[in-house]
Amino acid sequence: MAFNAETSSLGTPLYGRDDIELIERKTLYQGFFRLEALELRHRLFEGGWSKPMRREVHHRFDAVGVLLYDPARDALVLVEQFRAGAIDDPVSPWKLELVAGLVDKDESLEDVARRESLEEAGCEVGSLTLIHTYYPSPGACNERVTLFCGLVNTQGLGGIHGLDEEHEDIRVHVVAFPTVWELLGQGRLDNAMCLIGLHWLAGQRASLRAASQRALMHSETDEE
After folding, report:
1. Which of 35, 154, 169, 198 could pair covalently with 29 via S-S, beta carbons 3.0-4.6 A apart?
2. Within this chain, do residues 175 and 123 fall inside the same structural domain, yes or no?
3. What CDD domains does UniProt report for this protein, alphabetically (predicted)?
4. 105 and 177: one domain?
5. How is the beta sheet containing 34-42 ordered, strand by strand?
6. Which one of the listed residues 6, 46, 165, 166 is annotated catalytic?
7. How far apart are CA 41 and CA 19, in angstroms?
8. In a domain, 50, yes or no
9. pLDDT tens for residues 137-174?
10. Among 159, 197, 161, 168, which Cα is nearest to 180's?
11. What is the pLDDT of residue 1?
12. 63 is known to lie in a ligand binding site
């Protein structure tokens, strides 16, 4: 698709960090996460500067999510667990999600993806494909999420997983893609990772399955 001039110009932001004047930064709370109050002003699109304003920012660790997909069986691995942020959900605070975890500064994103897949789902991951890196809620939170697709063999997966020291109680489900897509349409999969990952998979599923079939055929040929 050809890009017009307006689309092309959006590839480079008009303003950057130097176009913000940070007047004061104050820590309101420091626990596992941090809450800060910022007083700042910034440049305006019509010229000049905004008036000073206060913004509160929730500082979180960056996170990695993994869409675990078995192309041979056309199935995904979903994990189910209690989520404190959804405690007032009108249906249930137990959510179906993709495997995910926080980034340790000494780990690569790929290492986090493989570690969390093993801890949360008992699952060894083959190749990893980067889907997107995004801010879930940049108006109030600095967290960035990197989402991968990890190819897996779902045979024998299931059961209860998670680390006791992190109070994890995770039930693992292996679900066929058509069923997962139905759950998405019903609103049962109501988090950003699932929405982004599954819409990406819907576009890539045929090529992933074809590549898996070719690899299987080559393997059978080599064994003959």
Report:
1. 35
2. yes
3. NUDIX_ADPRase
4. yes
5. 20-30, 34-42, 53-59
6. 166
7. 9
8. yes
9. 999 999 999 999 999 999 999 999 998 888 899 999 99
10. 197
11. 46
12. no
Q: What is the span of the domain harbouring residue 141?
A: 63-222
Domain count, the chain: 2
- To the question of whether residue 116 is assigned a binding role by annotation, the answer is yes
Q: Is 168 annotated as a binding residue?
A: yes
Residue 6 has what pLDDT? Answer: 58
Within this chain, do residues 28 and 87 fall inside the same structural domain, yes or no?
no
**Same domain for 179 and 124:** yes
**Do 195 and 170 share a structural domain?**
yes
pLDDT digits (tens, 9 = 90+) for 105-116: 788 999 999 999
Q: Over the stretch 76-107, which tens digit does the pLDDT of each residue have?
A: 999 999 999 999 999 999 999 999 999 987 88
User: What residues have CB less than 8 Å from 18, skipping those under 6 apart?
Assistant: none
User: What pLDDT does residue 7 have?
Assistant: 57
Residues 144, 134: contact at Cβ < 8 Å?
yes
Q: Is 25 exposed, middle or buried (0-12, 13-18, 19+ CB in 10 A)?
A: exposed
Asked if residue 9 is part of any domain, the answer here is: no
**Helices (runs of H) and strands (runs of E) counted in the chain:** 4, 11
Q: Residue 73 corresponds to which tokens in the numbers above?
A: 């069986």
Same domain, 30 and 83: no
Q: What is the CATH number of the domain that holds 71?
A: 3.90.79.10
* Structure confidence by residue, pLDDT tens digits, 100-140: 999 987 889 999 999 999 999 999 999 999 999 999 999 99
